[in-house]
Amino acid sequence: MKDILFKNSGYVHLSSSDLLRDEAAKPDSSLGKEINENIKNGSLVSTEVTRKFLIDAFQRNKQNIDGWQKDMGDKANI
């Protein structure tokens, strides 16, 4: 269902779980080691870890910012 939703909407789905698992698979990543500990313990990854993920190329100009504010301004605080 999720795949159909994104295919028909034109949006791209970025899964935080997938991103965290990708980081956890990196053998030399200190974040990956911490993520793996959380997985092993069945606990949630801390906010301090999740804050270290950056979506690149986001809001590079005024048009991007205006579009974000129009669609998301009342839904998210950036």
SSE layout:
Blueprint: H1 2-9, H2 16-24, H3 30-41, H4 47-50, H5 62-72
Brief descriptors of the model:
single chain; mainly alpha; 78 residues
Your description of this structure?
- The chain is an all-alpha fold.
- It has one domain.
- Helix content is about 55%, strand content about 0%.
- The protein is built from 5 helices and no strands.
- Helix 2 (about 15-25) crosses helix 3.
- The chain starts with a helix and ends in a 6-residue tail after the last helix.
- The model has no long low-confidence stretch (mean pLDDT about 80).
Q: Largest beta sheet, briefly?
A: none
Overall 3D geometry?
A: extended
**Backbone CA Rg:** 16 Å
SS element count, helices: 5
The domain tally reads 1
How far apart the termini lie comes to 29 Å
Tell me the structural class: mainly alpha
Q: How many beta strands in the DSSP annotation? A: 0
Look at the structure and give the mean pLDDT: 81
Which percent bin holds the helix content?
55-70%
- Output the helix-strand order: HHHHH
Strand content: under 5%
Poorly predicted runs are none
Brief summary:
The chain has helices at residues 2-9, 16-24, 30-41, 47-50, 62-72. By secondary structure, the protein is mainly α.
